[in-house]
Amino acid sequence: MWGLAAVLAVVIGTIQYLDHRRATSGGEGAGDGRALLPVPVEQLGALEIADAGRLHRFERDQSGTWFYHGVHAASEAAHTHVADPALSARIERAVEAFGRTRRERDFALGRDGGAYGVASPEIVVLVYGPRQTQPLAQYAVGHLAPDALSRYVMVVGQPVVVTIPNYQIENLLGLVRAASGAAAAGAPASPAGSPAPAILPGPGSPPASAAPPPATPPAPAAPSSPVLPGSAPPPAPAARR
User: Fold this and answer.
1) Rounded CA gap, 102 and 99, in Å?
2) How many whole angstroms separate alpha carbon 193 and alpha carbon 68?
């Protein structure tokens, strides 16, 4: 088991190294027919990842710094963002790595979209140019390939399914988890979970925990002589002079 994991780690590391060599050698760019993205990373302004029905948006500000934008309602159009330096660096690394993604194999789509998992994908990736509302490209992410190292991806609008290294998708999903966790950690606590405030007593009133004083018991009645049936009651004692 450990030997297989080591072999897979070496294979993935080799692929990443070769991708980096291609990117830095000048052989990859907008004119590279095997590149997945239609433009170089420097020309991207935003990246959106839809995962299991939830949309995550990563955007580059005017200074070129990446930040996690999230999803905002129309009523929240006027808002600002403060980029987290650590998260910005991680976003930049993930986007640059995704920009080096290359198509491995091509398959005619035909009617086999369901077999590749791209007909109803759980993951969709969209890339945008700076300050653009329409995406440059959309990618429907499908199933793992039988070798468990590649992932089926369909470029929306093209009748072809390609494979790309699966670690590129795992990198994006890891970025989503990191950004979501950072956003959740920075959110204020909900007041609904706070305990109710204690009710303070008013001036001169006893504390809420004090019990009321006990009532004074009534005095016991004086004993009287029993009266037998058919007999007159005993005479009242004469008053003393």
Assistant:
1) 9
2) 27
Q: Domain locations in the chain?
A: 15-25+32-184
Q: What is the rounded CA–CA span in Å between residue 162 and residue 153?
A: 5
Q: What pLDDT, in 10s, does the model give residues 93-119?
A: 999 999 999 999 999 887 777 889 999
Q: How many helices (H) and strands (E) does the chain have?
A: 4, 8
Token pair in block for residue 14: 């080799």
Which CATH number among 3.40.50, 2.60.40, 2.40.160, 1.10.3470 corresponds to the domain 15-25+32-184? Answer: 2.60.40
56's tokens: 């995550």
- Give 37: exposed, middle or buried? Use CB within 10 Å, 0-12, 13-18, 19+: buried
Model confidence over 36-82: pLDDT tens digits?
999 999 999 999 999 988 999 999 999 999 999 875 444 444 444 55
